[in-house]
Amino acid sequence: MGKLVECVPNFSEGRRPEVIAAIVNEVKKVQGVTLLNVNSDASHNRTVVTFVGDPQAAKLAAFTACAKAAELIDMEQHQGAHPRVGATDVIPFIPVSDISMEECVQLANELGQEIGEKLNIPVYLYEAAAKTPARVKLPDVRKGEYEGLKTAITTPERQPDYGPAHMHPAAGATVVGARQFLIAYNINLSTSDVEIAKKIAASIREAKGGYKYCRAMGVMIEERNMAQVTINMVDYTGTPLHRVFETVKSEAARYGVNIIGSEIVGMVPLQALIDTADFYLRLEGFERKQVLEENLG
Amino acid sequence: MGKLVECVPNFSEGRRPEVIAAIVNEVKKVQGVTLLNVNSDASHNRTVVTFVGDPQAAKLAAFTACAKAAELIDMEQHQGAHPRVGATDVIPFIPVSDISMEECVQLANELGQEIGEKLNIPVYLYEAAAKTPARVKLPDVRKGEYEGLKTAITTPERQPDYGPAHMHPAAGATVVGARQFLIAYNINLSTSDVEIAKKIAASIREAKGGYKYCRAMGVMIEERNMAQVTINMVDYTGTPLHRVFETVKSEAARYGVNIIGSEIVGMVPLQALIDTADFYLRLEGFERKQVLEENLG
């Protein structure tokens, strides 16, 4: 199947369909890239584009879309509910198959340099690509937003990683980085007591001493009169699905509660399902290329 | 990803590399087909070719390879340890993704008719494509082999499903059909007592009252001083991996024995792994298209 990376650029335009179409078209034009989703939000005035492809094709698509956004979006005119620093606000690369996080960090650096030099837009690297701990989290990098960063960018601690040390007059700044695939995962409980779900969520989430790559909350699903542990698995290679499932099962048993089902919301990388089967069947020496469909094309 | 079928034709030539290469080349030439494996055995004087592709491409590749085999193999000269009735001995179609067994039976009928009419080779349909119960099992269809079938073919009960009611002078007859994907699956036990493995194997195999689509034996793996249940899963959609694994675990516990691991030997369709994850995570409403890699162009 070859190396595959996902890229999810966020653009500061969610209202003008012709502008959104022009940006998305830049992605579509690149061979070796498959567009998966386009999600525009008018109140946020923001569009999230999801595509996958081989690393170089993905980088090219991200660059041309960023160039088009710089041409068509004027941050001086932009208003919206969502925090942002530029026309292309943030571009994360996500490893999908046969590619390491290190390669995605490298890709983020290459793209950052290209955007800085060719488009004259200042670029900040974040998450796995961050060069200092202060720039790992997106909210820290975006502090002050477009308006505040115009002056803050000249201070030493806000100096960009690539490009000029001043904002692009229309496109602002862009944040580029690499992170793991996020799996939205819900576990449904045989109880209508949301307090139990909240206690279980606390037991698995990082903030309360649980799993490092697990964000979790207990919520009530009114339509089913059922409590649910709703989870963001922010790195399934570090904290796998089966471990969270088994821990929730064990913690729920403490309250006499069972798991009645679980839901994967949206996409999941094949590797996360292989890892699950590998664990439960106690597979010895299983290799991904044994999956028949992996040998095509 | 689109409809995908596997095809595993067996040819009665395992000694002359140039003949094998010429036959395999017919498969390689067809667009939309991916060659997965070629396995020749000199003592059997037989070659097994494995390829996958979209249904029409797979049918075309099977036909052209069969035509080439009829051109280059003379059954009057053929000797080998393996039972056979023709130059192209047997052609099974196997559903892999987005295709039903009924569609594979239809494909077998189309190919059988084409081989009968265009190559003048008598064709018998077997397994899921069989038109009578007496022709389901390959050994029944192959009874008497090439030499015996030359006269038996004229009797009403051995009349072919397609093509002439006499053997092709060089290529003999061909058996075409449709069957499920076979998964070779071994479960390793925490004991060196092969009798326990044999008892567990008896509990899961169809012949002894076990699972319908399960063939199993207990064997000793000398290098690891370990007993093993070695299994052919002949229809993982009817008898899934997890059910066999859990039953072996339960039966082994009866003897104070644990499962120390399991092995998938060779290829496995993605769906079998999805089904495993689906079972253990108790997934609700999971669809195959949620697998990220399934959405690629």
From TrEMBL, chains A, B:
Q: Name one GO cellular component term.
A: cytoplasm
Q: Where in the cell is it found?
A: Cytoplasm
Which InterPro entries does the protein's record reference?
Answer: Formiminotransferase_C (IPR013802), Formiminotransferase_C_sf (IPR037070), Formiminotransferase_cat (IPR004227), Formiminotransferase_N (IPR012886), Formiminotransferase_N_sf (IPR037064), FormiminoTrfase_cat_dom_sf (IPR022384), FTCD (IPR051623)
**Which GO terms fall under molecular function for this chain's record?**
folic acid binding; glutamate formimidoyltransferase activity
Q: Which UniProt keywords apply?
A: Cytoplasm, Folate-binding, Histidine metabolism, Transferase
Q: Which NCBIfam families match?
A: FtcD
Q: What are the leading ranks of the lineage?
A: Bacteria, Bacillati, Bacillota, Negativicutes, Selenomonadales
Query: Where in this chain does the record put each Formiminotransferase N-terminal subdomain domain?
Result: 3-180
The question of whether Repressor is a record keyword is answered with no
Q: Mention one GO biological process in which this protein takes part, according to its record.
A: L-histidine catabolic process to glutamate and formate
PANTHER family attached here?
FORMIMINOTRANSFERASE-CYCLODEAMINASE
Record keywords: Protein transport included? no
Kindly provide the name given to this protein in its UniProt entry. glutamate formimidoyltransferase
Q: Highest taxon of the source?
A: Bacteria
Q: What is its EC number?
A: 2.1.2.5
Q: In which pathway does it act?
A: Amino-acid degradation; L-histidine degradation into L-glutamate; L-glutamate from N-formimidoyl-L-glutamate (transferase route): step 1/1
Ranges for the Formiminotransferase C-terminal subdomain domain? Answer: 181-295
